[in-house]
Amino acid sequence: MAESGILVVIAAMTLHRRHEDVQKHGCCALRNLSFNNNNKIAIAADGGIPVLLAAMKAHMGHVEVQEHGCCALRNLSNNDNNKIAIAASGGIPVLLGAMKAHRGHVEVHVHGCCALRALFLNNTNKIAIAADGGISVLLAARKAHRGHAEVQAHGCCALRNLANNDNNKIAIAANGGIPVLLASMKAHMGQGHVEVQVHCCRALRNLSNNDNHKIAIAADGGIPVLLTATKAHMGHAEVLQHGCGALKNLSKNNSNKIAIAADGDIPVLLAAMKAHMRHVAVQVHGCRALRNLSMNNSNTVAIAADEGIPVLLAAIAHGARRGAGARLLCAGQNRVVRHDAAEAHQGRGWRGCGAGHRGSLGGNHRLQGSWADAAAQIGASVEWHAV
Fold first, then answer.
1. 3-state SS assignment for residue 261
2. Helix or strand or coil: residue 385?
3. How far is it, in rounded angstroms, from Cα 118 to Cα 250?
4. How far apart (Å, rounded) are the C-alpha atoms in residues 201 and 46?
5. Which of 237, 316, 315, 225 is nearest to 272 (CA)?
6. CB-based contact 242:202 (threshold 8 Å)
7. Tell me: the pLDDT tens digits for 92-113?
8. CB atoms within 10 A of CB 318
9. Residue 122, pLDDT score
10. CA 377, CA 351: separation in Å to the nearest integer?
11. Homologous superfamily of the 1-175 domain (CATH)
12. Residue range 25-32: mean pLDDT, rounded
């Protein structure tokens, strides 16, 4: 349909604001048109956003108006300028109102959650949505539609984006968001629902930057859930990236260090690193998690026993291949040390001397720093072969 057709739809909706069928079909037409990127721009330029919102406000009890309106806003919000325009026109409370008015209607929640998910990518909107009560609405939607993977995926992603804000982290936890996230992960653990796992792991990773939330996630059973998700999706790098990232944050808490090891997470972290050796984020978060865990003496022994040292060596060697050659100075009780596994890797030994020193390693410096810290902790507690 040419732009003149968009104008005709908008004009009809403007002229017949109180006529439900006109508004329903007008919202449906704009929904269909807004799948086209050029039409997204034209609808906004022709004043379609406030017309959609007026229709939704005037007919809040009409489920089809709300469904089509939410889907049209979902499509329109994939344009950055429209994200701003929707919020500026009062679209956030309208979307939240639709979801509250039709809690049992899954399509309203699918499109509403997805629209909010897109709007959250704008930092100003993150604050506005939380201020308008969006966190409690999103959590209620996910409780009401726990078995619907699409609602869960979009809702988890919306919470993930919200949780980048420190105040929102606190609000999500205060509104019971942690057990809701964990319940979603448990309900959708299969391979067909990987998006739920990605977004929930990332949301938990963001939330676990708060020290109180580290305790709460563990208390709500989050460690075994993260472990199960990581094992179930070992082939999916993004699940592992955020799962390892969440475990990295959780492992900064001393009680969690013990719980993570007791639940069998050390072999899972190592398996994730081996499975995605070329994925820098998986390696960084895996190394940092092992660094944190290795501050517990029992864990240093366990990491070595689970063949963690060759995995760490392989990680840093890959980083070195991306830059300069590899040479590592590690803590070893002022002894020169070498582990047999190092010899097997490109014929090099792993050498170290002097507690607290680190070598100059090429490639990814975050990875190298994390690896060196983990190696230092393990090196201080494991028996090495002298050279």
1. helix
2. strand
3. 28
4. 40
5. 237
6. yes
7. 999 999 999 999 999 999 999 9
8. 17
9. 83
10. 15
11. Leucine-rich Repeat Variant (1.25.10.10)
12. 97
Compute the chain's Rg from CA coordinates: 26
CA pair distance 276, 236, nearest whole angstrom: 9
Tokens of 173: 């936890």
Instruction: Name the residue among 135, 215, 220, 137 with its Cα closest to residue 185.
Output: 220
Q: Which residues contact 97 (CB under 8 A, 6 or more apart)?
A: 56, 57, 60
What is the rounded CA–CA span in Å between residue 261 and residue 12?
Answer: 64
For residue 375, pLDDT beyond 80: no
Question: Would you tell me the crossing angle of helices 365-379 and 308-321 to the nearest 10 degrees?
Answer: 150
Kindly report the CA angle at 184 between 183 and 187, in degrees rounded to 5? 85
The SS3 of residue 337 is strand
Which amino acid is present at 197? Q
- Of the candidates 192, 209, 203, which has an alpha carbon nearest to the alpha carbon of residue 225? 203
Map out the domains of the chain as residue ranges.
Answer: 1-175
Place of tokens 């309900």: 187
pLDDT in tens, 152-198: 999 999 999 999 889 999 999 999 999 999 999 999 987 678 999 99
Distance between CA atoms of residues 101 and 78, nearest Å:
24
| The two three-digit tokens of residue 341, written as one number | 């596994």
Neighbours of 330 (CB within 10 A): 26
Running DSSP on this structure, what letter comes out for residue 348?
A: -
Contacts made by residues 5-12, CB under 8 angstroms, sequence distance 24+: 5/33, 6/30, 6/33, 6/39, 6/42, 6/43, 6/46, 6/48, 7/46, 9/33, 9/48, 10/43, 10/46, 10/47, 10/48, 10/51
